[in-house]
Specification:
Layout: H1 2-84
Length: about 100
């Protein structure tokens, strides 16, 4: 009976040692993977921003014919509103 208990204790101890080693590996590789993931995300945001800076003017110019009627209508309304506005009244100078 003592031999069987000794075998079970040894198996349990080896099991715990293996679990701790697995935990250390998982924690280490998880942290390293997380750092590389953050680095890759930052590089991706930078590259995405550069691509947007290059592509956005082309997209804006290609959408210009679609937006031109709305822009002209906005410009007409803006011009009418500014023409109809009276100049600000100027107060007479104060003489002493």
């Amino acid at each position: 009976m003592i031999e069987l208990m000794l075998i079970m204790v040894m198996v349990g101890a080896l099991w715990i040692v293996g679990s701790v080693i697995g935990l250390i590996f998982k924690l280490t590789f998880g942290l390293i993977g997380g750092l590389f993931s953050l680095l890759a995300g930052a590089v991706g945001l930078f590259v995405g921003g550069l691509v947007m800076l290059l592509v956005l003017p082309v997209v804006a110019l290609s959408l210009l014919p679609l937006c031109l009627p709305a822009l002209l209508l906005f410009g007409l309304i803006w011009a009418i509103a500014h023409i109809a506005r009276r100049p600000a009244a100027v107060a007479p100078p104060v003489s002493r």
